[in-house]
Protein 1
Amino acid sequence: LYVTEVPEQRALPDSDFECLFLRKEGVPQLRLRPQVGAISPGLYVFELVAVNSPVATLSSAVKSDCGAADCWYFSSQADVEDSSSMELDLRVAAAAPDLQRRIVSASIINLDVFQMLNIMRIDRSLALNNVIFSFMLDQSFVTGTKAMQLRGPLGFYFEEDCLPGLVIGADVFGAGQQWPPQYKAFAADVVARSCYGEGPRAALDLSPTFMSDRVYAFRIRVQNPEQVPPFNTWTMQFAGEASEPFASFALWEFHATRLVPLVLSAGGLVASTQRSLLGCEGEAEEATRMRPGLPMRLEIRPQSGFRRLLLTAPEGWRLMPSICCDFSEVASPTQIGFTCSSPSEPTLVVQSEGGKTFQGLRNYALWIEVQNPSTGTAASGSRWQLETFLTDVPTGGGIVPLFPLDVGSAAGIDIQPRVVGWHFARLPRTLDGSVPRSKEVDVESRGNIKLEMLFGSVLPKPLENGDVWEITAPFGFAFEGEEGCYGASWAQEASPGPGPGSALAVANCSASSSLPWADGPLARSAFVCSGRQLRIHMRELIGPYLPSRQAFPGFDCSACPALEALGGNVLSNTSGGDLEGCETACLGLSGCTGFTWGEPGQTCVLLRSARCQMNRRDGHTCHAQGTLQFAATVLTAIMPPPREQNFWIIQHMRGNVSVASAAIASWRIIPSICEVSLDGAAGSALSIGFFPTTLILSVRTLSAASRLSLMVVQPIGLDFAQSFVESIVELISGSFIAATGSLTTPGMPSNFLVDFPILADRKYSITFAGVALPPQAGLLVFGVHTLVGDSASIMDSCEGVPSFRIVGRLGVLRSEMISALGYRVSLGQTTLLTGDIRATLPPHWGTTAHVILIVNVSVPAEVGDIFRIASAFNLVLAGSALRRVSADGSLGKNALNTTLALPDDSGHFLATLSRPLEQLVPYELTLFVDFAGQGPQDKAKLAGTPWTIDVAVGSKTMEQNSNPTGASDIVCTNDGLFEPEFLTTVPYLMELSPTEVAPNSIITLMVSIFPASSRPAFIELVAPIGVTFPQSCIAEATRSVQSCEPREYGEGRMAAVLTLTRVVLVEGAAIRDVPLVVRNPPRASDGSRNQWLAIGRGSKKGEELGWGEHSQDYVVVSMSVNLQYTPQRGNITMVATFEITPRALGILTGAGAALEIKYLGIGGDDSGVFFQCYQGDPVAPPNDWVMGEDMTWRRVGAWFPLQMLPGLTMTMQPCEAPGAKAVSFNLAGLSAGQVTFAVRLLQDSWLGRTLADSVSWDITLRDEANFIVDMFPELKQSAWLPSLGVQPLPLVWTASFPGERATIIVAFDLLNENGLELHTICVRFPSGFNHSRAKVSKLFGGEKESILEVLDSMPRDWPWVRSFDDTLSDRFCIQANTTNLTVGLEYSFTFGILVPKESRWPATNIWPIDFCNHACLANVNASSSDAANSSALRRLAEVNPDLSNASDNSVVNTSNDTGADGAGQKETTMVLQPLIEDMTITYFLLGFKPNEVHPSQVMEKVNIAHRSGNMLGVCLSVAIVLAVHL
């Protein structure tokens, strides 16, 4: 065996240390220098990061300093700055390796267990090991003999002649074993010529052939180091190539071992002391017995996976796995089964079951029962040895029973002398106050109580000044609390003689009332408490102190030890000691009194706790030699202490050294059940004398048992006689458990027993139905115990638990919470608009809501009593009310006086009763709840917090009244059973575009919803009234929304249900840019809530999580449009003006559009009206005029542009004669603005409507896909009126030169007898035109005396004009002589005007002409339409100011020139309707452009002259006209 002596290594300082690289005279140097102090002598190990030269350095020259071509020199200088300064140590040179080409790869091959066995790869410390190395060369072909240098970490050792351990052939992986495919064997001609080892280095000569594209493997034997070296890497050099350092392997060893003993005293426990340790998992309590051993824990962390663990203890130790052996992985939820055995007393074998393997590099804990050596021993040299193995491993040669793995050891333990006679006694009384108890559990055995205890021991050595007795209680016990030490002192007197319940001193045979240690030398000793430790500091002793030997008759106390026996345990003699002549005196147990120790194994079963003393029977004198006794108060543990920490330990400390110690097992703690409650079931009455009611017991058990006992101690009278167990639920798993039996204790109806399998560390909810409450009020106090079967063995206990008070009952019959808006609506204070659903939705966080409760009381309450509510909600007193509900539902007067308030606690509602509350009569309680500052994060707190509603006696003080948990002032209560599930929602924000839409349009509405933290799965978008959705209501799925479906929401509103994607649910993100497809109504619903509203839900029909309403009205904006026509029969021309808005232009996005005007008629009757669209588009000059059969010139086409936008092209879609109900125009080159044009239509019927009736028109702007972009639906216009019998002819002008004078000729036909009522005709000028302010006679160069001559009226010399009026500059009027009017003639008159400059030419050149059957004259106005259109009428003047003279307040019904094909239609055959009094009909005649010449001025004059028979007038007129044109 070769062991490398490695001196202790040191590390360089981490700070205040300089590492400097420099070149001095071309030589690289590295300087290491401390900034403070000096480098201490020793071996230092450090790493350097350096860059090798890029050029290989192979030199045959060898320096004598280091035996290599290059050397590293190390020196220590007095002055590192001066290399010539004194060298403190002899300079040393180390060979620098040649720089060679890099080997592609080199490594140690990791093997599986099968391969390790085949080659005996053993990674244990100092073991001879067979390691397989691999390498791949960079050179393509290597021949000849080459040297390989293999260098391992410090501590490895190669044999000097390592050739026998070198394997390069086919057996590298074991004889006959198959190679892994990635590795190649050396070529057959390769020969290992030599192998020389020196420490961790091996030099091999190999020849002749190697190639670069193969990974070669070889095996070599090497001895492992004793421990893993700090630099655990290998290097390889071969054929002029060198490897990077590659990793070595970890040794099979234990990385951490630790022994944790309970006590270090020799012999372990006090001899013959009864043990209460339950042992290992699964060992029943009744199997425990007196043991001389102690539990010890061994902590290990092995390197390798294993199946067997071998533990060997030092000499003198005894391992007892039959009593306790437990092996497990620390903090692992799953464990592997195991067995424990002890081939000999100092050895232990732990074997896994089922061939399973314990994993390596895991932390394990081994619990083993041990017996300390009987005499003191030192730990040095006595280590505990550990080994792990694999068992039954298959190999090529068969099954290997044991394959050794990790080895290690744990430091031994110093064993001290034992403190003799260490004992304790418990006093059977507690110091925790008086509470009602069932007396089923010994007080001393309960957990979490204060006990008075007596302790004593025999001193093996005298006490000295400064000595300390250190007593450690079991885990969970405490000598000290918040108020300090509970109390400890020297015992002042011995216990009285034997008797039931007495405390037994160790001597138990003295009648003396004073003991020698109560004062004297130990009087100044100090008792110091600290947690579970009690220290007695020996002070002011005069020399070493040993208590005197006191003689007492009858007993030899030093020879017979005392015993502490517990109920249910077995007392037996297993100590093996000489107990001849001893007998027991078990106080309080006649069954054990006189028990004589006989043969080992004789037992005495103790049913209750007892204190037993073995005494001499031979009359020997009792001596209390060296015995000290003291008293202390201790708080017992709540839970049973862990098995290894349930001992009372004493140590005799001198300085910091323990000179003696001992341990004695404690008793079994019956756990105090901390989590226990008894409450009424939800909805159950808890008032006095009520039957039947239901109680729910919630209890968390700590131990396994089979029976539960519930006993109600007070008030007296609670009766379980008719009760039964309704259910048992294990709350952790939620599983139901069937009771195997239940009964009441005979003669004790308030004690109920339930049998069912009770598991440890479980929480149960047991429902007891059919319980009769006591007839008297009071605080209910109960106790709970768990037991094993019918025995008296109590496992867990909890007594004196206060529960609820038995008082009057206050019931909550119904509850709801509504928003402030909903509350105002319910009171009739607010009237909602149609479709406003906000009042039906839950209130928002951050707002004020209203809670309405219907309550009653089981006992009456008086005026002045306190009505109070405690809740987590912020209740507002102002406005609250408590009103009696009558049988008819009406409410009485408020019974609350809210002047009494709680300023510091808004969660408490407090008011006095101003009226008495009648028994079992419903009352409506209304409260305001303020959610300001609260949000969804408070939902769980509010929902899970019950409301306590009660009535208290009003004679108490204000402080008492403000405490809803007070016990003595409650009249009646709801017992906190009202846990409201009020739905409070998150306010949503919405973004929606557009908010202004066209009537009847189908649009894509972009909607974004911000649901805050509510995380809805569905969004319900509720549309305004009239808005609908198609079946697929989303244009396309988005990142937020995967589908949409419409549904009826109610209140006349439709909703789109959006199914959100998982992305929204996971991220809780906003729902952005949802393209919703909607159908808009013809108009917004008047008097309705026209706003969108979003509701979030967790499921389609689930509760609302949040909601929000858009801040803006959703406005259906009718298209800005103006239609003007004359409501008369015949061929008429309509003047239409419409506006292309920026909104519409944005929707069209540069594409074309179509404009449609459609006649709807009256009540769906659209007969009689035809647009003349078969006449086509207007024609450009000079072919834009045509003469009709009546010799009248008219413009060509069915429509005529009047005011167009720049770049706009407009063409009419043609139709077949006689026309269509709708006319459509294709638009291109769109821009925002107004467009005015005229279009011809035929009205060929009279429907007999009155003036109050109206007809409807649809004007629609559509995009190229025929979707509505803008619209004015059902535009109301005046219906067709009775015929006035007038038909104007096209306007004729003599000249249109800007800035000059011209003559206007107005002509008309009288079509029927109604025309004979014609009274006044007024011609109104377009803007810019004016009177010429010169008589017409002067215009023609001569004086004319008559009106007929002035007006050049036709028929010639026919006196049909009575007078004219030109007082207003913007119009010219004449008054007709009705007596000279004749049906069937054409009339005309002429007047002069001033033509405006071209810059002031009106955009729309329309000449309104009013025909009145009354004296309208200059103040004539067009007739008004019905008032329903007033808003649209007002828009007319804004849309087309050039037509504003047509009407001051109304959309004007206009007529135009008679169509060419309809000129001859007369109404002679129709039945005339009576004319309307003061009737005015306005016609609009198309004007002319600047410099436009009427095409047939001469022809018009000829035509007029021909009709009048005055040829001379014709010639004169032609001459005059020509002169004017010249």
Note: The longest strand covers residues 398-410.
Protein 2
Amino acid sequence: RCQDDVVQLQEISLDCNLVENNVQLRFPNSQLMPQIVIKETDLNVTILLATDHSVHRFTLSHPTKLSRNASNHNQANTATSVLAGITLKDSLQHYNYAGLPSVGRTASAELLDDTSAVFAVVLSTSIAVIVLPPIGSNDGARMMEIHPGTFMQRFISGLMFGSKMITSSDSNLLPQSISFRRLSDGKLYLFMICPRYQLRIWSIEKNDFVLHLDLNIYRPTPVDNDYGAADQQNTLSTSCGDMVFDNGKLKMEYLGSVNDTNSNIFINFTVTNENIWTLWKTSKGETLLKFLPVLGLQKNLLGWYQVSLSSNENCDTAVLNDADIEEFFMRFIFFPGRFSRSTIAKAIQITNHTVTGQNASLSGVYGEGNPPSLDLLVKDVISLMSYQIQIACDAYDEISDEAHRSIQENCWSKFCTNCQDFGQIEREAVGVFADSGTGLVCVIRRNVTSYIYPTDRIESLWDKALVSSDGMTDDVTILVECVGLIKRQLTQDLQLRVEYDLHRGLDPILTIREIAEQICGNLTNASAEASAIQWDFMTKLEKKLTAIRDISTAVGSVIEFLDVLERINDADETPSGSEGIEQISCGRLYSSRMALRILSTALTDISHTRFEICCDLLLLQSCILFFENKTILHEGDHCHVIKCLLMPRTIYLLRSYYAIYWLGQQPCSAATGDEMEFNMRQLAALEISSASGLFSAIIADPNYTLSELYVTGSAGYKMRMLLMQSEIWCDRLTNSNNWLLWPDVAQACFGKLLQLFWPEHRSVPLLECLVGNCQYEEAKFYINMVNGIAEAGLAEREFMLGQCYLSTGNGSKALECFISASDGIVSTKFFWKLLMSEIYDEKRAVSLYYMRVMRLFEQFSYFDLAIIAARTAIDSIDPQDPEIPVFWSNIFKYYLELGQAKEAYNALVSNPDIERQKNCLQLFVTVLCEQLEFKTLCLFPYEGFVDNVSDIMLSRARNINMSSNCYYDQLYSFHVYRNNFRKAACVMYECSSRLAEESVGIASLQQQAKCYLVARNSLQLVSADRRWILCPELQLPISKSNVDKTENIAEINTMIDICIPTLKSYVMGTKIIKVNDISRNYMLVISRLQILQRDSSPKFSEGQFTSEEILVYLILVGLFDTAFSLARVFDLPYTKIFEGLAYKCYSMSNDRKNGYQIEDEEVAWLKANDFSFISTIRELRPADLAWRLLQHYLEYFSGAESSTFYACVANKLLSLNCPLPHWLSLSLKYDFLSEATQLVMDYIDGVHGINSTEFGLKNAVHADSPSVWLPYSSIDHLLKLLDNISSDTELIKLKQELKDKLGRYLEFADKISLIKIDNEKSRRMNRELQGIAGSGNIPFQYTS
């Protein structure tokens, strides 16, 4: 595209998507000439262009590498354009550039065999022929000028200039058009069209004119006026000839002339070796393209052939009916490829300005720069039209639904008209391009390019252009004339009504018969009174039908042309031997986005054309049946053949082509990334991989139509594989010089695509593509259409329909479709791939199929439907099928997911596989336990599985950390419900044992106490001889009882959590536990809990303690009631308890004696003991209560060891220098004189330093140690009591020993006292001397 000094180059490939394919080159201070020549060789692409001051050559290299990924339709096919390497710097090299001596007007160029380039430029007074040297040459450019005047040659400035002078010097004799052409001798010639239709041919090799020819002699009508006069007429006169050599002399061999007398505006033309192509514009602004075959010009009686340029810009509101207006117009406006973004943006801008008050809610910016994105355009169109409709409705106080719909339609129609107007401007045709090498013909428009594809035989037949040697052609031609005669009688568009019926699932034959009856209903009873027009129509139609020799055969011939079913091959098999560059090139063939759109658009046009032919043919047959009583139909029983054979086949073709056409008219629904991901998970549930070829997914783009989506995917790949098997490709392989031409290859591709899109046998791969790309609603509509066409593939389509219903949330209908599809499992190859079975086993096919269906429902959480599918499978397959246990297992699992425990249990017991029963039982128990359904779990009988349930729960309990373990409680309930109290006790005992090992804290101790208590109570419910249990010995690699209590508790918990999953392997053995053992453990735990109530130190809640340790802690915190109970249970001595209680009494008495206030915390331990033996507690002080408690216990334990208890209390009190209470003295007086005497003597020895620690003495009597107290009053009382004894010799002896020992002690004490007095005097003197010396007051002075 050239504009002023800028040329825009764009490379478009039909075989791959190009990147960096659009460049702009600017030539400052120059005006580009539009004649740009592009030549391609095996090595390079050469671009030759000229400005009004210079000529340039650009050489671009072909890519050296080809990707093999293009052979796979799932791989992106992209390549870098050759334009990516273009630079102006290379074009300014001396061998790629040459200047002009003056301003040029028009130019032509050609590439020579040695890579030289020759340019011909028409200057103001001459013609310059410039030759650029080969690439990389050191030579400069050569220039030769052709002047009007004499024939001479000259050289200027080192360049070779040649001059051939024409007789006149008038510059008007210079050619208006020049072009290089190679003739049959292989040499290059310059053709020049001069004024007054003078043709001059210049030989580049000879540097001379070789032919001067007046073309007026070949024109049908001589023109004597000057050049340009013919432009004022609307007639195009075309004369064609072939340049040949006669005895070495060039001459033109005239072939013929054809005139075009239509009043059209001529735009452009081009010529190939086969055709002359002309581009026109009608008075209505429509574009016409015509071509004229060159070789058959003399025999051509039809003249110009007109190319049908289909346009998808016309909006027919007649098909609106009851459809949603906004949805209808939005689908039309944003149909892929219909309007560009700039067109829609301009329509929005102009509509926004025409509305009263501009709409400020538009999201995009219009009128500046690039148009907004497609999403913004959709949003703004809806917003703008809603605003415009609201303004129109505001003018009415009240408005009916019909009026509101009319306003909607009017506003949307205006906006749609604006889009069409701007679209027509953007699509205005400016030229035609035709390439003889490839046969490609394009119409160049302002912003787009239209590709011309060949029509097939049936379209040519319907256009009366089919030439055949058989006699059947005459009958078919008359048949087509009958169709045209009938169509002229139609008052409405037949195709629209039929499309409406097919779109809504109605039978189109009813509409056809109604129209036929309107046209021909009165033919059989026609009379002279009928109107002249009706009579003329009846007469003509009857004559034409009479002229057909065999009506049914003629109709059958047309149907045979339309039917492609018989020409379908198996497109699923990839041809063997397709390797190397051939496979790569075929894999790339027409794989670009542009080519795929061309193929899908052409396929849509072809299918629509054939759909119209089927409509016409069906109407013709319906009209023929009204002549049933005529003799023309009696021979051969034509009516019966038409009614029973031909019309059903025509209806079948009508539906088939409409289905293909509908795919091309339906844009894709936008699929989000989440939908695609969910779709992939759904395919994973079917265990389908990309290698299987099923459901290959492409990212669905709203800019695709459904047919384009399919061609982009598997259909395009299969088309190329089929093309490799075709004759046209085989001819190319056998003949390297036989290049593939666009008309031939395109025709072959269209035929293959029709096969691949044919609904009867090819609907399943297409549905795989739709479902794989989340086009569920479109797939459902297509399936309903195809189901009305053919029965083949019904099972596959039902399966696909089930997939669609499932994905759109209608599980019930999906189940119906899946069950219906199961009838075709055995006989359909599609299900072989679905089941991924290399060796297809018919017996297992149904079970494998329903297995996939179950997984699909499971993926969507339709567990109730999955159960129905599984039960249907069980009823359908052989009872010995190995998959039956799997179905029952799944039924059980789905019932469990639904929370229906009873049904799940029934499914469990129905499973014939014992191992699967056990697995399901384990899941059953686990789920119910986690849901805390204890009662439900216990209610089932578990016939034959009670031990299994117990083992499962126990195993589960042993493999779960005790911090969140509820299985022991549930297992206890399970056993109690079945009156198995010993197992219940065993479970609780194991639970408490693990709690002691693994858990710490008050909560753990409380739980242990409960477990021990429950276990003990359970054993109490059985007979006495059976009150024992057998429990496992668990030995953990680490526990909280065998670690240092100062370690980090969090670290210990972490280590326990790691070891718990393998707890099952640490059952070291078993041990017998009796009810007394449980009671003792319970007592230990209760004691610790009571200790924690008095002292919350963490050390009491961590680890495990012996009974002796707990007894000590009980004494420390003052829990003497519990201490005595613990000692009684574990058979521990009471002496430590009495000593502890005696110390408590002493402490409280000593504090009161010294005047200290006793805090509430210090007497709180009293409240923890039982004082029920005292009636008036409030009147007693805390110290008195303590002494009373001690007295109570001494009196309570007045058995054989009572003297021991009194003695230990007295010893403790005496060791504390505490006077014995009166009641204790009396007890000693009457019962314990000998023990008291011995205790006093031992105490005196302790004061002397003998066994002092037994009495708690810190030191003995020494001169340098503190004083030691001796209870003299108590000793005096004891001696007085002993003095009263006269009969007991043992006591007398003890009295004497006590007096002797006391006397020795007193003598020793006197000595110690004297020593201490002396020592004290010495220390006092020393302190006084040290004080005087320190103050400096010295009483004497030393002199020498």
Note: The chain has a mean pLDDT of 77.
